[in-house]
Amino acid sequence: MTNRLSIFSAAYWKTAAAELRKLNRLTLAALIIALTVVIGSFTIPVAENLHISFNFLIVAFGSMIYGPLLGIFAGAALDIVGYIAHPFGAFFPGYTLSSMLGCFIYGLFLYHRRISVMRIFLAKLIVNFVVNVGLGCLWSQVLFGKGYWFFLVNSLIKNSLMLPIETIMLTLLLQALMPILTRAHVIPVQNSNRISFI
């Protein structure tokens, strides 16, 4: 198993690109997509075009294993397959872009990296506020014709409240799976069996 790498090194991106040629990673990405689509059936509505979902757990887990580059393709496939399985209105490529970007961000923070609560928090922070709030409100404005600020308020409140909860949930999931993934040489060996804070 390759050691932890810096995202600023050529070796990191070469390793991430190599994931695109590994059959086991492509198969895992397909399974992650299928599982995410199934879990996507169960959401909690909050407001117009706003709901709570647990997809992020599976998406972040997959991106941690197969990295940011395969994550981009998995994110695109996830949105398209998800739309086919659960069509809601017309297909909109903006949501595909958001899905791709979310997978890329999770991969960037978690793939071949030392897993920590702070790293998980930062990944969730960027996904929640750049992708979910920033882009999500823009896509809602384009689709529904209401002002950006109309969607911003609800989305900002929801994503702010969910950030610590989602960080804890993702930390607990990765903590439970980390020893298994390390022993199977799926992720790099961590400094300890526990996820550190920093």
From TrEMBL:
Any Pfam family matching the protein: ECF_trnsprt
InterPro entries found in the cross-reference section: ECF_S_folate_fam, ECF_trnsprt_substrate-spec
Keywords of the record: Membrane, Transmembrane, Transmembrane helix
Keyword Transmembrane helix set for record: yes
Membrane-spanning segments: 27-47, 54-78, 90-109, 121-141, 161-181
Keyword Transmembrane: yes
GO function terms (MF aspect): transmembrane transporter activity
Superkingdom to which the source organism belongs: Bacteria
Name of the featured protein: ECF transporter S component, folate family
Organism lineage string: Bacteria, Bacillati, Bacillota, Bacilli, Bacillales
